[in-house]
Design brief:
Elements (H helix, E strand, L loop, with lengths): L1 H28 L6 H19 L3 H27 L4 H23 L15 E3 L4 E3 H23 L1 H11 L1 H6 L4 H20 L1
Antiparallel strand pairs: 1-2
């Protein structure tokens, strides 16, 4: 029973990172990013491509892939999302939905619909004794990283000046502007950060 509960925690860890990135973007921009899951997929494929084409192992991919896709998210926000935001919300809804379909179709045409092999790092290949049961080290690592990332984001949002600005811009944007803070300046990095979280969950 405890092992099944732990399985649920590990599975939920992926969704927690996904939901965190989605919530950050929606809170700051008011945009329902339907392409968020596609960037999660790109995180997984990014790690696979890094290994298959460049010989980069899991640890390098874990460091490189999320920031790179975060930059891709910044480009998407600057070129498309920002221009559509002042218009009817339906435009961004349709744009992100279309972007998700395009990204999925591109990867499907390139790699097919079957899963691609990706070896677990040798350092995480064994099992850990958790007292009442043993559990794969990789799954424990996933849960630990997810908890640390979520905790770090919480600390940044609640304990730092940047976090205060982001929360104020989310909850009271007009008042924040009246205090002389450029809300628009923070939109792009927040969008990129949300995409990077999705990519991290994918890796």
């Amino acid at each position: 029973m405890l092992q099944q509960a732990f399985n649920g925690l590990v599975g939920g860890a992926f969704y927690a990172l996904l939901a965190l990135g989605l919530a950050v973007i929606f809170g700051m921009l008011g945009v329902v990013n339907l392409a968020h899951g596609a960037f999660y997929m790109l995180g997984a494929f990014g790690a696979f491509i890094a290994l298959d084409s460049f010989g980069l192992n899991f640890w390098v991919s874990l460091i490189l892939v999320p920031p790179l896709l975060g930059v891709a998210g910044i480009i998407v926000e600057r070129l498309f999302v920002r221009r559509l935001t002042p218009l009817d919300p339906l435009y961004n809804f349709l744009f992100t939905f279309g972007l998700a379909l395009i990204l999925q179709d591109v990867m499907k045409r390139q790699y097919g619909v079957n899963s691609q092999p990706y070896p677990r790092p040798s350092q995480l290949g064994g099992t850990l004794n958790l007292g009442l049961f043993t559990y794969p080290a990789y799954q424990v690592f996933v849960l630990g990283v997810s908890v640390l990332v979520c905790a770090a984001v919480w600390v940044v949002l609640t304990r730092t000046r940047v976090g205060m600005i982001v929360r104020a811009s989310t909850e009271r944007p007009e008042l924040t502007r009246a205090l002389g803070i450029d809300v628009g300046r923070w939109v792009t990095p927040v969008f990129g950060f949300g995409i990077a979280l999705a990519a991290l969950a994918g890796v």
